[in-house]
Amino acid sequence: MPTTYVPSAPALSPSGEVRLAALLSALPALREGYFWERRLHWAESHLQTRGRPQALRTARAFAHVLDNMSIDIGQHELIVGRHPKGEPDAATRERMERAAEAWGGHGLQEWALAQIPDPALKLWHGGVFTTGSKTGHMTPDHEGLLRRGLAQRLRHIALRLDSIDPALPDAGERRTFLLAAQIACEAAGRFLARYADLAAELAAESSCPRRGSELQAISASCRHLSTGPARTFHEALQLSWLLHLWVCIENGESAAAFAPGRIDQYLYPYLEQDLQQGRLTEAEAYELLLCSFIKINEIGDDLPQSAVLGGMVSATEDGCNRLTELCLAASERLGMLNPALVLRVNDKTPRPVLRRATRLLRTGIGFPQLYNDRVTIHCLRQAGCRAPDAREYCIGGCVELTVQGRSNPWVGNFLNLPKCLLLALNRGVCALCGERMGADTPPPAELTTFEDVVAAFRSQLCYAIEQMAYCENVFDRAQARCTPFPFLSANILDCIEQARDISAGGARYNFTELQGVGLANTADSLAAIRSFVYEQGRLSLPELVAVLADDWAGAESLRRELLRDGPRYGTGDGGADEIAKQVVAWFTAEVGKYHNPRGGRFRPGLLVWTLGDGFGQMTGATPDGRKSGAVLADSVGPAQGRDRKGPTAVIASVTSIDYSPMVGGLALNMKFTPECLASDEGIEKFVDLLLTYFEAGGMQMQVNVVDGDLLRRAREEPELYADLIVRVSGWSARFLTLSTRLQDEIISRTEQKL
To answer: Looking at the domain assignment, is residue 722 inside a domain?
Structure first.
């Protein structure tokens, strides 16, 4: 038996193979265009509800969309519910534009911008931080809806409505929220009934007995699910898909990085029961799973929709099961970007599952990303989550932590750490535009010690985070005012009990996850200043600042010396690692000072997303040898191409940092050539490396398995590599859809060997 053996996925029947091929063939056409029907019906509903509370207007708009959007059941579909896209005809487009103009939109951006002062606007527009409304990136309560159904959820809402004390000062607001949640949940039930009717009609018209029987079963399931709980694996997949679809529709026209969550945990009891009672064969169950994975890709793959596998289900038990393996096999079979799989790893994770996950990684798809249960659960416990809740963590969006069905994480706005350092070296003045935007720290000539530089950097960091926190809270309040989410809130624990929308603090856990970008550049730059300026005396700080202002013009030899011999985070350099550790500690301390309007705390993260490119273009030359405008380093990894001492040196640097506060998540990108994982021996070595990293305190790892030559060929012959997938920063993407700068960044990453 080969060492990488795991039970293989069951073979599909001939009819199953036909179905799979047909669904995959139809998928590209289903993703063309945009969800214009949502835009039209949303605007027209808001025109009809002027003067009503916004929660009721949102609920009515959601219901209007579900009641009027086109529905369809494809010829081979077993899981139904369409995210319809297309292009409206000229008359409909004109109608849509009239409705949108008359409605005028929700006004969130306008209201928020009116509250933000000029100092914060300067930092925002100057590339020091991003800000704005954040939605999605979370997992609703799939398990609860599957177990109880829509009718029981509506009964809960009705009971809570009856219990509202009219003497409460906010009794009216609470009743309004509950009425809105009621309207939204009733609309979801009607949507299922529409599909039940359509399936029955198509069954009556079908000339194929087999397809007619399938449609009758779909009709019966949808009819039952319009009020009742899931009873079978098929119904569980169906209702779970629709919950995902509904929260995406309420939010907008895309997936909004909503995450299906711990699918192998809340779906497995239905699979196990069906297999034991003979309702399904494993091959039929696998076919249904493949159908559901294809459905998720109908929404699109521009944003990750993360599904979590494995992980602790009690203080002593890991949750890996047969469905875990089937999910890994389904992703390998389909080769699609969604669901973006995450594997939670702990000391009880079966090694065959780790091998199976590595086998999926070596296809080059870039997932599953791998999370350390021990560190991550501790992180959430430190943030105030109860132990059973912390074990329910999921990844929302790229790498951000969310507690399944229990939290409203405000995620993904970013702070430019290297630019804060440059502001510290220039009295708060941006070297690119010449405008003062930071705090007024001392001029370079007065920074006579390295400790002075650190103090100036921390002053800029403090000022920038203070301004950013203010902006984040402005947008947070604007969202509660302008864009409540009654349906999503009805599917988040505690919102109904508290009678509060998630945007008003109804969820059990309410984080604001603020992300720091460019850690390695900042650490390397500070280490270079300490070494070259204050220890070796190679040049004065004012001289270095002048060199940076000229983007190293006339100082190329110094720049190359810095790149070659300067202290480097990611190489096991203890000095640089210690500075990186301190930068994270300073950042964490400042972020943790702030509270949000939902009753939660600000929590740090080190996600970069595409801001390595965006912030890089707005950041001048840095003391680590980086040129002005160059892409910044990715998350907790070393700067591109500087990790030349192998993966164990990278791990030594990365694990020198305390990740216990990092609710916002982080990414360690590792790049291996396909040859590294081609053999059983290579897979075993990778598993050992991963477990060593996690034992040392690493939180997350994600892997690119691709060689630079292939990526370069893809740019030269794009028609041959349209489906080439790479891991970027927390998500996977088709290589050729990325900007040239991001492509260059991925190519420049060091190809590690095991």
So the answer is: yes
